[in-house]
Write a structure and sequence with these properties.
The protein has a five-stranded antiparallel beta sheet with strand order 6-5-4-3-7. Strands 8, 11, 12, 13 and 14 form a five-stranded mixed beta sheet that branches. It has 50 helices and 22 strands. The chain is of the alpha+beta class. The radius of gyration is 60 Å and the shape is elongated. Helix content is about 60%, strand content about 5%.
Length: about 1550
């Protein structure tokens, strides 16, 4: 608080007129003092009255403005007060609405916003504000609040206002009371008001009409900060209504502290006012306390010494402002001296006041209690009071009486155990044994380089041997010495057979044995001092060299330890070999392979410390001598010799030194390993994939759309260069990659990895050239195959002119084919040259391919020349052969011509069969001659000679065709017409007869015309004769077509006889001649009508027969169903499809006009089909429900819980089994299902099963109500669980649907559930076990849920505590993945806010560096050997840590966050542990949203990267949840 705050001249009272303001006392001027104080300088003699005058006195003197003062520091004196003339104001209803956290759009299940507002209105209105103030000891009518003698009234109350109680900003209040129409503010409120008549001060209703800013005009808010903390610079204009006494409305400007709005919580306002009074009281006490300290004399006070002043001055002058300046330091040093003496006075005052407060009860003690408080503990700590007990004298004389030597000796002998020779001998012997132990070797100080496993084995052997020696040899020897010396002692002081513990406790034997224990304890301590010291020195010497890694091949070693060793010792140390040998190895396979060490770098530190700690554990478990000597005493515990404890300072120092040395030296391994990072990419190369990529890239690999065997042109030069590159890299690597290297503490052996890398480069280089060789050979073989195909084609021997022509054509294309192969020839030869350039060794056979390929074009050329000469001679030979064949062909045609010319002579119809056979032979000869003529013409074209025209053949065909048609037609007709007339009428093919008659009539008509034209009378007469026979038969055709209808039945023949007045008897003897003779042709129209009717009826009859025949083979397919002892119906789709088709056909028949003869049959068949359809439908419906319910009610548990539904199902099941037994076997579907009783039984079963399903659904709803997660399961899954409620294991397959991260739970013996397991295999044990036996499934599933939540919370708590106890890289492997992610966030939040609170933005920058280091540590950890679960956890945590690092980087360098309340930090998702161990919880905060952590187990899965969009989603969801809006998008 600045000194000017207490100056009355700087204090201004608001709410009063100018007269009241000027009534304040004038400013006080102070004389300068020699030594200036901090608080007392404001006071001088005679100023007490002025100082004690309160502004409240001015308020009491002023009758015009009876309001309390509203004061601030350093307000300008030119502030003017303006008042509104109106005494009342109209206000909007919204100005009385409290602030609520409710959404404007009501969500189902939530209280509407209007109801919540109205509820708060009524709660606020129910409070009596005056009574609330009285409850907090705030009575403004009390004299203490108005008396000018009360020092508190000198301090303005509004300076101590805590705006954290404010619920709205200034703008928000003004906006709440603003009337949009008039733009006026009217906020109903209560303000502190002093009645003008009675002087009583009460909270009186008023209207707030605006604000005014210091230094501005009323209502001016342009310079007002929106922060609520600016209330101290804002006065609120209030208007009090008319009083009952008739006083007019009054206006004033008051501080916010004296105004309680109607829309404000009166309890919060009362707390705010009480808090301000409390703060002012504390400030007043501190001021008085400091004034007392200033008033204390300083004349005899010791000042700062000259040396201290000089040091202060020297340090100050080193600073930048005073570095080159000339400054008079005397006033500053005088000021420092005064502050020092004042501080000393404050200490003395605190000390004396604490004593006075403790000794007295008077006014002084009361005043001191008010000033410094009544906390004894604080008083003691501040006063520094010394122990009242006086210290002992340094020098003095003590009188001693005369004593008797004999008595003294007797007393000594009575108390001492060193009075017997046996005891002294035992002591001597024990000391000798202990001397040996001092030199005991606890560690193996190996002098050669060793691997970590060998080092550990050696240390373990040595320590175990030492342990055996201490526990057995040494302790046994001590016991033997004691027993051998005291074996003859019976009862007395040294009785080893003592059984009474109390006697033993008072005996000399206990002292003697305790003495031996102390000797052993000292010996063990000396042994451990020696051993641990040597071990620490041994490790320190091994770690002395300081290594700087330059590259893979070199490292600089400083053997002097940074100059700690002399040159001589450095030279000696340089000759010593490293302590450890470590191998460079390859960890992982394929794409996951990385360089690593045979032992991780951290393992060396852990191993050394492990055996350091183990040596201490050995000496901590040595049993005291008395326990093994005094066998007859009862020992409630095992007494242990107190030796060296691990927590002793010197032990801790040794351990920390060893740890620091080994860690420092081990860090070189990590640094050296990072040098191999550039080689990791090559290490991870799969040679087969690499070669495949190279082959595809450089054109050697065939594509999928290319033909098999087609060679691809290979970029041979690129592959050659790549091979040479790998050989070059191998040569460089062979030089730069050492087999061993000295790294100070370590000798690194990398011979195997070096050989592997070199071999890999060699293998790749060789296989690249192998690829070139393989492609070259394939390429060459393909080209040779092409050449061989050309040569083979050219070597063919032609058999005829056609083959000669083909060869000639191929000879034309052959040169082009060879030319096309020249490119392949050149490439192949170039490939061989490339292989020869790198000295690639080919097999002899492959080597010969090169020259074989080279000679092929010459071989093809020679073959072409030879073939050309050969074909010229063969062509002439084939031409002569063809001429001879043509001559023979002409003679053949002449013979056929003579045969055709003689055909007109055949005029005897009786020889029709012989003539028909003759013309058929001529026809065959003509067809053959036509083929030969075409062949001759084709060959003539090939020989390039004139083609002969074979017109003779065409003329012969033209002359032959009429005779051919005549005799074939006559032959076929004469044979058929006799059969038509005399064979059985019912066997005639009416349609065939109709086709034959038509064809014969047309052919004969054509022949008649031809023969008449050529005047061939013999043939003409035959044609006419047969044509007349055909015409005579034509009237029979309609009769045959009508009466040979398959639908003609006896009733139709009867109708025909009646209609035509005939007596036709239909049997096998009936012929066509009989029909024609009966006179039926005379009634042809009637016959046709009867035939049509018969055809329609026949179609109906045939359809009915087919339908019935189809069902005669349809049997019920009934198959056994599981192990239920019954069967089910299968193949129903086939039945239903057939039923639908036949029902449709039957219903169409019912509307036919020709159904008469079959009407009854159709109706019966339709009823049968309808019945079968209904039965099958109901059957399938019952079967569906029965299949669903059968496994459910097969469980005794379900029947027990649903007895009524169980009985109903059993009734249906009984009927079902009976029906299925009857349907078993080859039962026809049409017969079995045509049963009304069966239909009724199925309908009744459907009704019962529907009732069962309804009852089952209601039952499942009750179970889901007991455990809501059952809603995630289907009815079938839930019923599977409930049907085996006695077997909790049946719930295992369904846990994944009920819980996000639980795949199954861990059942122990007796079916006790002790933990949970995730899908990834992570097992989390439970604190609270669950016993599901004898419990309903929903009950113990609730217990499972609770145990899950308790377990996750407990692991959360323990992991948070464990985080600070172990290394972070170790910590993240010890806890479940979910716990690791979120507990790490808790500490990230804590450490971030700690950095902000301590150093602001600079702390964030430092913390950012720490986060980067944590990520580096995790990278090294992941490269090592980790379990699958740990690797998943660390990988997910890496995503979170990367996001945390990015946030810190942004806060440190971009947004410049300096406080924990800055938005860039507040907008992050922060995790806090709030509360104690028992009731605490994890809370997640983000801006104003604060949500409790749910503790739902989520398993151990990977995390997606967190992007800025992810952060926005988090922020939106957290805000929505806080406002109870849910997380679903709108």
């Amino acid at each position: 608080m600045p000194p000017t705050a207490l100056s009355p001249s700087k204090t201004l009272t608001h709410g009063y007129d100018d007269q009241s303001i000027t009534s304040l006392p004038p400013p006080v001027t102070h004389q300068q003092t020699k030594e200036r104080g901090v608080y007392s300088e404001m006071l001088s003699a005679g100023d007490n009255e002025t100082f004690m005058q309160s502004p409240t006195k001015a308020m009491n003197d002023s009758k015009q403005q009876p309001f309390p003062p509203a004061r601030v520091f350093d307000r300008p004196s030119n502030l003017t007060i303006q008042h509104d003339n109106s005494a009342t104001a109209n206000f909007d209803l919204k100005s009385v609405e409290p602030k609520v956290q409710c959404p404007f759009a009501t969500i189902p299940g939530m209280v509407p916003r209007k109801i919540e507002i109205e509820r708060k209105k009524r709660i606020f209105a129910a409070h009596d504000l005056d009574q609330l103030l009285l409850d907090r000891n705030l009575d403004y009518n009390d004299e203490a609040f108005t008396s000018p003698n009360n020092d508190l009234n000198l301090l303005p109350l509004d300076a101590f206002d805590n705006t954290d109680f404010e619920c709205r900003s200034v703008e928000a209040w003004l906006e709440l009371g603003n009337n949009p129409e008039t733009n006026e503010v009217a906020l109903p409120a209560k303000a502190l008001f002093k009645e003008p008549d009675t002087g009583r001060m009460t909270m009186r209703p008023c209207i707030v009409t605006g604000t005014e800013t210091l230094g501005g005009s009323p209502g001016d808010t342009t310079n007002m900060n929106t922060n609520m903390n600016t209330n101290s610079n804002v006065l609120w204009k209030v208007s009090f209504p008319e009083s009952e006494a008739g006083a007019g409305p009054q206006e004033a400007s008051l501080h916010r502290l004296y105004i309680c709005f109607v829309a404000e919580d009166p309890v919060s306002f009362a707390d705010r006012l009480a808090d301000a009074h409390s703060r002012r009281q504390k400030a007043n006490n501190e001021i008085i306390k400091q004034i007392y300290a200033d008033c204390m004399p300083r004349e005899e006070m010791k000042q700062l010494e000259a040396e201290q002043i000089s040091r202060i001055s020297a340090q100050a002058m080193k600073t930048r402002p005073f570095k080159n300046a000339v400054v008079d330091t005397k006033p500053i040093l005088s000021e420092i001296n005064m502050i020092f003496m004042r501080t000393m006075n404050s200490i003395i005052f605190n000390h004396k006041s604490a004593i006075a407060k403790g000794e007295g009860e008077g006014e002084m003690a009361k005043m001191l209690k008010d000033i410094i408080g009544d906390d004894d503990s604080n008083s003691k700590s501040n006063s520094g009071a010394a122990d009242p007990t006086p210290p002992p004298p340094t020098i003095g004389i003590v009188k001693i009486p005369n004593y008797s030597f004999v008595d003294a000796k007797n007393a000594f002998c009575f108390n001492s155990f060193l009075t017997k020779s046996e005891i002294i001998k035992a002591v001597v012997n024990v000391r000798a044994e202990c001397t040996k132990v001092v030199n005991l070797k606890m560690f193996s100080l190996i002098t050669k380089s060793t691997r970590l496993e060998e080092f550990a084995s050696s240390q373990n052997t040595t320590i175990n041997a030492a342990a055996v020696h201490l526990k057995d040899t040494w302790t046994g020897a001590v016991i033997n010495h004691v027993k051998s010396q005291l074996k003859d002692v019976q009862k007395g002081w040294f009785n080893l057979e003592e059984t009474n513990t109390e006697v033993y406790n008072f005996s000399k034997l206990k002292k003697f044995l305790s003495y031996l224990n102390f000797i052993m304890q000292d010996s063990m301590r000396d042994c451990m001092l020696e051993s641990l010291g040597k071990f620490q020195k041994y490790i320190d010497n091994a770690c002395k060299p300081i290594v700087t890694v330059n590259s893979i091949s070199s490292a600089t070693i400083d053997y002097s330890g940074g100059g700690q060793l002399t040159p001589a010792k450095t030279e000696v140390r340089q000759k010593k070999i490293p302590l450890f040998v470590v191998d460079l190895v390859i960890d992982g396979e394929g794409k996951n392979s990385v360089f690593a060490y045979s032992s991780p770098s951290t393992a060396f530190t852990d191993t050394v410390l492990q055996y350091f700690d183990k040596s201490l554990q050995v000496v901590l478990k040595l049993t005291r001598i008395e326990r093994r000597v005094m066998k007859n005493l009862f020992w409630s515990r095992e007494p242990i010799i107190n030796t060296v404890h691990p927590s002793e300072d010197w032990v801790v120092n040794h351990r920390e030194t060893i740890e620091a040395d080994v860690k420092r030296s081990s860090s070189v391994l990590d640094e050296y390993l990072r040098k191999f990072d550039p080689l990791i990419e090559f290490l991870q190369i799969d040679i087969a994939e690499f070669l495949l990529d190279v082959e595809c890239k450089f054109g050697g690999k065939l594509r999928e759309d290319e033909e098999e065997g087609e060679p691809k042109e290979l970029d041979i030069d690129a592959i050659k260069d790549l091979s040479l590159k790998h050989l070059a890299i191998r040569a460089d690597l062979e030089k730069s990659f050492p087999a061993t290297i000295n790294l100070g503490l370590f000798t690194l052996s990398s011979a195997k990895v070096r050989a592997l890398m070199l071999d890999k480069h060699s293998e790749i280089a060789k296989k690249l050239m192998d690829m070139v060789a393989r492609v070259t050979i394939d390429y060459t073989n393909f080209a040779i195959d092409e050449y061989e195909q050309i040569l083979g084609r050219l070597r063919q021997d032609p058999k005829d002119i056609e083959q000669i022509d083909d060869l000639k054509g191929y000879m034309i294309t052959a040169p082009n084919l060879v030319l096309n192969l020249n490119l392949q020839l050149e490439n192949g030869l170039r490939y061989f040259d490339t292989l020869e350039s790198v000295n690639y060794k080919l097999t002899p056979a492959n080597f010969e391919l090169r020259w074989n390929l080279f000679g092929w074009p010459k071989r093809i050329s020679d073959q072409l020349e030879a073939l050309e000469a050969k074909l010229a001679g063969r062509t002439n030979d084939f031409l002569d052969e063809m001429r001879d064949e043509q001559d023979g062909f002409i003679e053949k045609l002449k013979g056929i011509q003579s045969k055709v010319d003689n055909l007109h002579t055949f005029t005897n119809i009786e020889r029709v069969e012989q003539v028909a056979s003759f013309v058929r032979e001529i026809k065959k000869d003509l067809i053959k001659c036509a083929d030969e003529a075409r062949t001759f013409n084709n060959r003539e074209a090939l020989f390039d000679v004139e083609c002969r025209d074979y017109t003779e053949l065409q003329q012969i065909n033209k002359a032959f065709d009429p005779y051919y048609d005549l005799w074939l037609t006559v032959d076929e007709w004469l044979k058929s017409v006799k059969n038509y007339k005399t064979s059985s009428f019912v066997a005639l093919d009416a349609e065939g007869i109709e086709r034959h008659v038509g064809s014969a009539s047309r052919t004969l008509a054509k022949n008649v015309k031809f023969f008449e034209k050529n005047k061939l009378t013999g043939c003409l007469s035959i044609a006419k004769q047969v044509k007349e026979s055909v015409e005579e038969f034509k009237p029979c055709v309609p009769v045959v077509l009508s009466l040979c209808n398959p639908g003609m039945r006896e009733r139709h023949w009867d109708n025909l006889n009646n209609t035509c007045n005939t007596k036709i008897k239909v049997d096998e003897k009936l012929t066509l001649d009989d029909i024609m003779e009966s006179g039926v042709p005379n009634h042809l129209e009637r016959v046709i009508k009867i035939s049509e009717q018969a055809g329609k009826e026949y179609n109906i009859e045939t359809a009915l027969d087919k339908m019935q025949e189809a069902w005669e083979t349809v049997t019920l397919f009934v198959d056994a169903y599981r192990e239920t002892g019954t069967s089910i119906l299968k193949g129903a789709d086939e039945y239903m499809a057939l039923l639908d088709e036949h029902i449709t056909m039957t219903q169409a028949m019912t509307f036919s006009a020709f159904k008469g003869p079959f009407e009854e049959r159709i109706d019966n068949w339709n009823e049968t089909l309808q019945m079968v359809s209904e039965v099958v439908d109901e059957w399938l419906a019952v079967q569906r429900n029965w299949l669903y319910l059968q496994p459910i009610f097969d469980s005794a548990d379900i029947n027990k819980q649903l007895p009524i539904e169980g009985k109903r199902f059993n009734s249906v099941d009984k009927h079902w089994r009976q029906t299925m037994v009857a349907a078993t076997g080859d039962v026809l579907c049409i017969k079995f299902c045509n049963d009304k009783k069966l239909l009724e039984r199925f309908k009744e079963s459907c009704k019962l099963l529907d009732m069962v399903q309804k009852g089952l659904s209601d039952y499942l709803e009750t179970k889901r109500a007991g455990f809501s997660r059952f809603y995630f399961l289907s009815n079938d899954e839930l019923l599977e669980i409930l049907s085996e409620s006695k077997d909790p294991l049946r719930v295992q397959p369904h846990l994944k649907k009920c819980f996000e991260g639980i795949k199954n739970v861990k059942f122990e013996d007796e079916l006790i559930i002790t933990g949970m397991k995730s899908s990834e295999g992570e097992i989390v044990p439970w604190e609270t076990h669950v016993d599901p036996k004898s419990k309903n499934i929903e009950d113990w599933m609730v217990e499972v849920t609770n145990s899950m939540l308790v377990a996750i919370r407990q692991h959360f708590l323990l992991s948070i505590e464990n985080y600070t106890e172990v290394k972070r890289t170790e910590w993240m492997q010890n806890w479940p993945g979910q716990i690791v992610l979120n507990a790490s966030q808790v500490h990230w939040t804590r450490e971030t806010e700690k950095a902000l609170n301590s150093e602001g933005n600079e702390g964030i920058k430092k913390y950012y560096a720490q986060l980067v280091q944590q990520l580096d540590d995790m990278v090294y950890l992941i490269r090592g050997k980790l379990s699958k679960m740990a690797r998943t956890s660390v990988g997910a945590l890496a995503v979170i840590d990367v996001h945390a690092r990015d946030v810190m980087n942004k806060m440190a360098n971009e947004t410049g966050v300096t406080r924990v309340r800055d938005f860039d930090w507040v907008s992050q998702m922060r995790f806090y542990w709030t509360g104690d161990r028992d009731d605490g919880d994890v809370r997640v905060e983000m801006v104003s949203s604060n949500r409790a952590y749910g503790y739902e187990y989520l398993g151990n899965s990977f995390r997606l990267v967190i992007t800025p969009l992810t952060d926005k989603c988090y922020l939106t969801l957290m805000g929505a949840l806080q406002m109870i809006l849910g997380g679903a998008p709108a």
